[in-house]
Design brief:
This protein has 357 residues and is an alpha/beta fold. Helices cover 43% and strands 19% of the residues. The structure holds iron/sulfur cluster.
């Protein structure tokens, strides 16, 4: 077991990643960064879903220039994703970016690296080193023959070494691979030797369905080992879906304190109600809540309420009527037609009480 709390805390805007802080959820915009309106609109949707930090590509001068205006209209730290061009890094820093993702070993001449580091130091901006199995340095591919977890860790240490030589320590590191066992092994090995916060991700994980499963397998394994201070789920989907998946994964490990949980049964031959659509409706209803409420939706009252003892509130179906229950105890019977609306009222009440205390 590792302890994510042993990592160095690194400040990013108004957040701190690493140390004893919560695991931070982030995503990346799909818009052209230079299109300020579209980018801000996407970031605001991400914020509403629970995104705590967002990255934008800074691939040209227009994108770097847009940062200033985007920053004015959003409420979470903004990260610039930069490849190679140190001038774009400097422009992003000048325009108020909160963090830069750039690999110092790819910047080029030492003087250019020094300039970026100096600008970051002056404004207290951290750098994320993003190692990717698909783009390892040639000297490592020559040494290892092909991408391996050891090669990935060596790449991270190579870039870290450049920053440390310049007495720069506000570093966050990712070691992404789309191969799940490779990513797990790379992060596990990195956690042994790297004192900086680790940003978890299974890169190019796939579509909403397959990417969710792949990310859950990889990131879940790492979180269960105590590894990971921030994470991004990479999906070929609306980035809001990435946030929903990230919240569910963190919830599974008790690493998020403001997320609702739905408990629902798989159904069986005892079922007399349309449980799947009820469960989906309730899940949608509670998805935007920032309250750690547990809601249970069960097909019948035979085993259900007892099996969902930890639920704050729940329903169990039956022919013509259903049960409303709390912590496994039946509260009252409700006509089947009113089951969901009564459940929603109870949820609203619990949320009101929670928010008032
Ligand atoms: Fe079957 Fe009832 Fe259990 Fe659902 S709660 S799986 S309907 S026994």
């Amino acid at each position: 077991m590792f302890s994510r709390k042993d990592t160095r805390p690194v400040k990013v805007g108004n957040l701190i990643i690493g140390g004893s802080n919560d695991v931070i959820i982030q995503s990346m915009c799909t818009t052209k960064t230079a299109d300020v309106d579209a980018t801000v609109a996407e970031i605001l949707r991400l914020e509403e879903a629970g995104c705590q930090m967002v990255r934008v590509t800074v691939n040209n001068e227009e994108a770097a220039a847009a940062i200033k205006e985007i920053k004015k209209q959003i409420h979470i730290p903004l990260v610039a994703d930069i490849h190679f061009d140190y001038r774009l890094a400097l422009a992003a820093i000048e325009n108020g970016i909160d963090k830069v993702r750039i690999n110092p070993g790819n910047i080029g001449r030492r003087s250019k690296v020094e300039e970026v580091v100096k600008a970051c130091k002056a404004r207290g901006i951290p750098i994320r080193i993003g190692v990717n199995a698909g783009s390892l340095e040639n000297h490592l591919l020559e040494k290892y023959g092909y991408p391996t977890p050891d090669a990935m860790v060596e790449s991270a240490l190579f870039h870290i070494g450049i920053l440390e030589e310049l007495d720069f320590h506000d570093i966050i590191v990712s070691l992404k691979a789309s191969d799940v066992p490779m990513a797990i092994e790379a992060y596990r090995k990195a956690a042994e030797v790297i004192p900086y916060p680790l940003h978890l991700g299974i890169t190019e994980a796939g579509t909403l369905f397959s990417g969710t499963i792949k990310s859950s397998a990889g990131i879940g394994a790492l979180l269960s080992l105590g590894i990971g201070n921030t994470l991004r789920i990479s999906l070929s989907a609306d980035p809001v879906e990435e946030i929903k998946v990230a919240r569910e994964i963190l919830k599974s490990f008790g690493l998020i304190s403001d997320a609702p949980t739905l408990i629902s049964c798989p159904t069986c031959g005892r079922l007399d109600i349309d449980l799947f659509s009820i469960a989906n409706e309730v899940e949608e209803y509670i998805s935007k809540l920032k309250v750690p409420i547990k809601v249970s939706v069960l097909g019948c009252a035979v085993n259900g309420p007892g099996e969902a003892r930890e639920a704050d509130i729940g329903i169990a179906g039956a022919r013509g009527e259903g049960m409303l229950f709390r912590y496994g105890e039946i509260v009252r019977k409700v006509p089947e037609a009113d089951l969901v609306s009564e459940l929603k009222k109870e949820i609203d009440h619990i949320v009101e009480v929670y928010e008032a205390t």
